[in-house]
Request: fold
Amino acid sequence: MPARTVTRTVPYPPERLFDLVADVEHYPLFVPNWAAARIIRHIPGGYQTDQIVRFGPLREEFVTETHLEKPHAITVTAVKGPFDHLQILWSFTAVPDGACHIALTVDVELRSRALQVASRIMAGDSAERMVHAFEERARHVYGPPDTAAAAAARAADAGHVDPGA
Reply:
């Protein structure tokens, strides 16, 4: 499956969005299809996480390693699970008036052809839904955005066309 990139400008500072994405143990509360996530080991610059996702009747458990470069980037790679390859890259770039341009790139290849077909059918546009889930989580955790930051986010997205979308 080709890598998928979703970008968005959101009316919160990079540090706040970074903290939401780094808080993997709360994903089951708001990220679609996430059933469980727990940090199993801290490593220099990050952590390893045991996670479970569900797509319809399919349930997959996997272990990832997350590297944190606060507040600019988070890189997640598979250590164990149903993947030939899994890399997730989040980047956070400050824009004027306290907003943040985020980019999420998901590059995944499952081992089983049956899982590949099923995940394409059931996951749909999961990267887009994931970014939306974090936007909603930011509103829930941090409250309504500052008006200047919201205007900056709208202006930044109006002038940006995402070729990966």
